Amino acid sequence: MNIPEAMAHLHGYPFFLTAKGTDKSHGVMAEFVTACANTPPMLMVSVRKGMALSPLIRDSRMFAVAAVDGIALAHAKRLDQMIIDQVDSFMGITVDHTPSGIPVLANSISWFECELARHIDIDADCELYAGTVRAAHMDEGFQAQLEREESSMSELLMDMTPSGVG
Q1: Predicted confidence (pLDDT) per residue in 136-147, tens digit
Q2: pLDDT tens, 84-110?
Q3: Does the 3-160 domain belong in CATH 2.30.110.10?
Q4: What pTM value is reported for the model?
Q5: Where are the domains of the chain?
Q6: Contact 76, 67 (CB under 8 A)
Q7: Rounded to whole angstroms, how far apart are CA atoms 95 and 164?
Q8: Which residues lie below 8 Å from residue 52, measured CB to CB, with a gap of 6+?
Q9: Closest by Cα among 11, 76, 1 to 43
Q10: What is the C-alpha separation between 68 and 27, in angstroms, rounded?
Q11: How far is 117 from 45, CA to CA, in rounded Å?
Q12: How far is CA 163 from CA 154, 159, 160, 166, in A?
């Protein structure tokens, strides 16, 4: 999956932020996710302050953010309410892993593995993480759906073009 192409589809879905420490991993629902730079590709993620995920991101300097729906969204919402302890939060849940080993919920629409560039503590109920995208993945079914939609849009545009106009 091409990183800029995956970043172009960062809208309309809830996102789940995950990180992994030496002995545990955890995830929380993201409040907002947006692309914030093209070169290098970067994402800005907003999460509620005081989340147990913060020390994991700080120590590992890595995080993943995944667009979720269906069963992955149900798992994300349940995990978002968990208090991190000595047990891995993802125990008993099917996960995939990013190249650096960060867990992402299986059946996520897409995910982005990011290296922490900045942590910004703003005077609000959220804190921000800016990350350089190191890897991206898009579900094959979702990617095929996007290709069908793009093809249909191209056909529609061709039908709307007057004859003889190039």
Answers
A1: 998 877 666 656
A2: 665 678 888 899 999 999 999 998 999
A3: yes
A4: 0.80
A5: 3-160
A6: no
A7: 53
A8: 26, 28, 83, 84
A9: 11
A10: 12
A11: 12
A12: 16, 9, 9, 8
